Amino acid sequence: MTNSIYWLIILAVLIFIEIITLGLTTIWFAGGALVAFIVSLFIDNLLLEIVLFIVVSLILLFFTRPVVMRYFIPNRIKTNYEGVIGKEALVILDIDNIKATGQVTVDGVEWSAKSLDNNMIEKGKRVIVQGIVGVKLIVTERKGEV
Description:
- This protein is an alpha+beta fold.
- The protein has helices spanning about 1-20, 25-40, 45-70, 80-85; strands at about 90-95, 100-105, 110-115, 125-135, 135-140.
- The protein folds into 2 domains: about 1-70, no CATH class; about 80-140, CATH 2.40.50.140.
- The chain is about 45% helix and about 25% strand.
- A hairpin with a 2-residue loop joins strand 2 (about 100-105) and strand 3 (about 110-115).
- Helix 1 packs antiparallel against helix 2 (about 25-40) and helix 2 (about 25-40) runs antiparallel to helix 3 (about 45-70).
């Protein structure tokens, strides 16, 4: 019966961690702790309780987590920060890394920009967003412009 209190504490801590993180990881171990708690109410065998905790937790983690992640967690939508990488942008202020100037628009949003290869890129040119450093887009001039 004394083990029951410890399993209940472990269960509460795991649920608290899951509520804080929402990572769908500790909830499966909380399921194992719940099974161990229920068994501890009827059988006073710590080894059995630990084995059940581990087995049930791993079964829940490996077999039900992927299903929950696939069907109940909506597809993550890229933020504008992630969504601009690889897109074409229009230079609206000359990009000059030495002077630390440059601006582009991507999907109607203005961004500060920097040239990946340190070349100056003139206003009106089209560029491709290669990455982001801080709040600046790292761009390269689009090849094949007419």
